[in-house]
């Protein structure tokens, strides 16, 4: 085809061809699909809700938060059991994250968290950079709302990494 020097303004722009990144091709892992990651997070949330449902039922049966003055001991016991159940689940997920880079939801969806070079991501990196730092940022007025919206939307980028993944230099891969 001969170049006539004319340019079609309605033609799709040409993007340069990019070779696959060395971290994807050399490390021997495949990034998890967006839908799989979403389902893993959804399952994690449902597990926490499942643990807390008996707690909420018990609070409702005991008269709720407002009428707890007459049943102080019962209400305190229910609150303690609910907090303990939540804490146990949280600690169990931290143990799984430390050992395998997975929460329960990630385990069920067969994905795990690793460093961007494929190495194991330590618990400190996962907790402080993927969980704690983003949690603190979301508490900042105005900035937090923008961050909370932008963080998960970054998964639709070419790298399929959320902002918390970029902060912690991690990726989620098929296990």
Mean pLDDT: 87
Number of H- or I-type helical stretches: 7
Helix content: 55-70%
Oligomeric state of shown chains: single chain
Transmembrane segments: 38-61, 73-97, 127-150
Subcellular location: Cell membrane
Region (Disordered): 1-27
Domain RDD: 32-168
Question: Can you put this structure into words, describing what you see?
Answer:
This is RDD family protein. With 175 residues, the chain is mainly α. It is built from seven helices and two strands, in the order ααααβαααβ. It has one domain. α2 packs antiparallel against α3. The longest helix is centred in the middle third of the chain and has 29 residues. About 5% of the residues have low confidence.
Compact description:
Residues 32-168 form the RDD domain. The chain is mainly α and 175 residues long.
């Amino acid at each position: 085809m001969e170049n006539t020097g004319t340019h079609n303004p309605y033609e799709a722009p040409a993007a340069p061809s990019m070779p696959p990144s060395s971290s994807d091709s050399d490390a021997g892992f495949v990034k998890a699909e967006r839908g799989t990651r979403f389902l893993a997070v959804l399952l994690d949330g449902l597990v926490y809700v499942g643990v807390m449902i008996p707690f909420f039922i018990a609070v409702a049966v005991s008269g709720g938060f407002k009428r707890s003055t007459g049943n102080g001991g019962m209400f305190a016991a229910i609150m303690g059991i609910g907090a303990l159940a939540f804490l146990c689940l949280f600690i169990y997920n931290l143990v799984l994250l430390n050992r395998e880079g997975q929460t329960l939801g990630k385990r069920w969806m067969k994905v795990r968290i690793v460093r961007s070079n494929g190495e194991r991501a330590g618990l400190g990196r996962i907790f402080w950079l993927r969980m704690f730092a983003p949690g603190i940022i979301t508490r900042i007025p105005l900035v937090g709302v923008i961050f909370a919206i932008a963080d998960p939307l970054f998964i639709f980028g070419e790298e399929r990494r959320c902002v918390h993944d970029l902060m912690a230099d991690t990726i989620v891969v098929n296990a």
